[in-house]
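Response to reviewer comment R2.3. The reviewers asked that we include at least one raw input/output pair. We reproduce the pair for LytR family transcriptional regulator here without editing.
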Amino acid sequence: MGEVGADENIPRFNRVASWHDALINPRFTSPQARNKRAALLLGGTLLVPGSAQVSAGNRRLGRIALTVTVVCWVLLLLVLLSALFWRTPLIFLATNGLTSPVVSICLVALAIGWGLLFLDALRLARPGLLSSKARTVAIVSTIVAMVVTSGGLGYTAHLLNVTRSTVGEIFGGGLPFRPVDGRYNIMLMGADAGADRVGLRPDSMTILSIDAKSGQTVTISLPRNLQNVPFPEDSPMHDVYPDGYNCGDECLLNAVYTDVTENHADVYGDAEDPGAEAMMDAASGALGIDVQGYAMIDMAGFEQLIDAMGGITIDVGGQVPIGGGTNELTGLPNPIDGYIEPGVQHLDGYHALWYARSREGASDYDRQARQRCVQTAMLKQLNPVNVVAKFEEMAAAGTQVVRTDIPQSSIGSFVDLAVQAQDYELVGYAAGPPYYDAMFPTYPDYDLLHADVAEMLANADGSEDAQPAPAGAASTTAQGTDSAGTTLALGGGLGSQALPVTRTETEGTTAPTELSENGTCSVP
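Raw output as returned:
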């Protein structure tokens, strides 16, 4: 009998040791068994961290790791259940200034611990006893696994910190919003303070009216040239303009912001943005609803947000100039630097901004239709893959683009409603063409507008009787209707719909008019 020490000289009954002995000491096992052992130790660490240590290493360390693993699996299950059935507390944990740092620290600790377990599992695999090929596979597999697991946890912690910082910069504090008459009404304003303009003016004004139960969402566009806007009786501006905002040709809806900021800021006390508060009051008076919050979108930063998304794709209905219009400071026409051509176009931030704001050869209603189309494209094309891949860029752009009075405590509820809203088509409406005659903003009938908005919102309550038409039922170009109350379809592209509104004939509110080709578009 030869010397024991080489595999070929080991008696057969010694080489056929128990698998447990082989895990503890692989020196006297076959090369195939060593490879299998290394794979099990590393694979076990990937699926059940701590299992390698319990089987072949420091059992006390392994038991601690297994306990942490079980706790993490239970927490992950709770997170998944919360994401499916009750997202509000999950979003609160991710965005709250107190809990979010704790979660981030825990994720970093788990990332470090898992990485150390992988390194210990590689040590226990005895790379020196493996064949050259198996050794390379084990080392590379360990590195890849550490990048995926520890790196993934670390990156998640980083994104959580970015989210918390972004939310803290954009959203305010305070108690969450409560719905009024079963709806949340939020005013979106596109603010433009270009070099050729006097002051900041919110030229794009849209109310998002969201059903508090179903998430069914209606967008109501307000023309910037709406005149004689009444302020609700409980608004501080009602004392300043008791008969409505009727101080002359300059007193259009979009001038309220500048007027209040420069001349009446004190009436809103310590409000951070009295101009925005006055705009919400004006929208409430115009539509007969209670507007509870606002989000101001800086059109200059809007370009960065679109670029962060990777651009948007729109089917352009008519040629849209880049530039043009009149310089308000000099009274001279601005040059035209090019055109956005008709057809399906993938627009970067620069071209998307001009598509939304271009005035040359277009009415305000054309611009509003194009802006609604851009909003639809952004919502449709903002998919989870884009969010993850471009999250930091979008977050950085968001802090420059958006300011709002929506409290952090309302974010969870709104995210829940946004998910539910995917079951419905976006309903579009406007206080002007194509729903009303082009003279309506100049000679508005607010009683009629209040009645129409109330009926339209009642039809969009998310009930079974108000289910949206099948996809494609609404036209992708703007079209009018007669006073009998036929459905109005607005050119907002796929994913938008208009509900029927019964309207009586009154002076200045005849059958809705067509938009020009400059104001038609769709989202492929």
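Confidence is low (pLDDT under 50) at residues 1-17, 464-513. The chain has two domains: 18-170, 183-522. Further pairs are available on request from the corresponding author.
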